[in-house]
Amino acid sequence: xxxxxxxxxxxxxxxxxxxxxxxxxxxxxxxxxxxxxxxxxxxxxxxxxxxxxxxxxxxxxxxxxxxxxxxxxxxxxxxxxxxxxxxxxxxxxxxxxxxxxxxxxxxxxxxxxxxxxxxxxxxxxxxxxxxxxxxxxxxxxxxxxxxxxxxxxxxxxxxxxxxxxxxxxxxxxxxxxxxxxxxxxxxxxxxxxxxxxxxxxxxxxxxxxxxxxxxxxxxxxxxxxxxxxxxxxxxxxxxxxxxxxxxxxxxxxxxxxxxxxxxxxxxxxxxxxxxxxxxxxxxxxxxxxxxxxxxxxxxxxxxxxxxxxxxxxxxxxxxxxxxxxxxxxxxxxxxxxxxxxxxxxxxxxxxxxxxxxxxxxxxxxxxxxxxxxxxxxxxxxxxxxxxxxxxxx
Length: 393
Ligand code: SDX
Known about the structure:
- 55% of the residues lie in helices and 3% in strands.
- By secondary structure, it is mainly α.
- It starts with 21 loop residues before the first strand and ends in a 26-residue tail after the last helix.
- The structure holds s-citryldethia Coenzyme A.
- GO terms for molecular function: citrate synthase activity.
């Protein structure tokens, strides 16, 4: 590249691909999966129905969703030898590090995923196994974080109930079909299911573009999501709210810190690369937060702090000028905590929700036979230099 062009690093304005999966309008705050609004899907659909929609492009018929769920439930068991990996992690190791490692290891147990030129059926079987085993792996990571024995999946349950059974089943058998838990888990997973070419999805696509297997591509996406500027923000939000609570709850003081250029503190859960209006998901999750905490009889003091922070920030010139609004991560952690998840598990739950979107985007890239991703750069380094012998340095 010659001459000088102003380059916005961080893929800030790069059209990386063509995709028919998710439509996002950041100015209007619009989010649609295959043309269906996130508001209607969150209200009327289930996570598995949305997964089918994202991956295969259409809302399933009754028979299609029954077959889909049946196939998935019969692949929820992970190879027993994987427990040796679980047991190998130190008890304090971060769940996202465990998740990325365990998902990547799936190709060792299911080597058909490594076959070149897979048929559509073979690709689809790997997709089913990825969806099925993710919920088991996530729930087993949760159990391990408490040193509890794992709970095995039961084919009689649908996806979300099976996840609740494997995660909280030692409480009561009814927990798997508790309407409040089933409804809020479906809603949260739907709201996280896809989001166009975000950091982790772009990672899944570029790793997959080298013809890398699905498990390793998803594992790469998990690593990208871990960062506190991306999916890791839901954990960082709760840690921030706890810090403000323990500091006496003075939200004005922390808003001032977030505006101070000399202070590295940022209001976690606020701002977005694309949304310059309210993140539509944040609106739905905020309402769900009130509903669920009331139904569960949970009174979490950080919810009041979150609402106060939002109210103060939305009137503050600094945030208004920069169009900084609450994003998907601002309220989600409060619900996860009310359900009984430890903070370190929040981003793992984000990954569980995002999985169908990552799979759909990876599949679309393969179906469209996209070439290997290989961006260019603006070179800013030294021009040619002769080698200097050690004595001359
Ligand atoms: C997700 O891309 C996706 O779709 C992601 C996601 C998905 O579903 O996949 O939506 C999920 O990752 C949501 C975002 C979660 N992250 C956070 O909540 C972390 C806190 N937010 C920020 O770090 C930030 O807003 C980003 C990373 C989300 C976006 O950063 P950008 O677009 O690169 O914006 P920027 O860093 O260029 O900031 C622009 C201005 C700067 O100030 P000035 O230089 O103009 O003076 O806004 C300021 C920033 O300092 N700013 C903030 C801020 N976010 C931006 N100031 C205080 N607090 C914040 N949170």
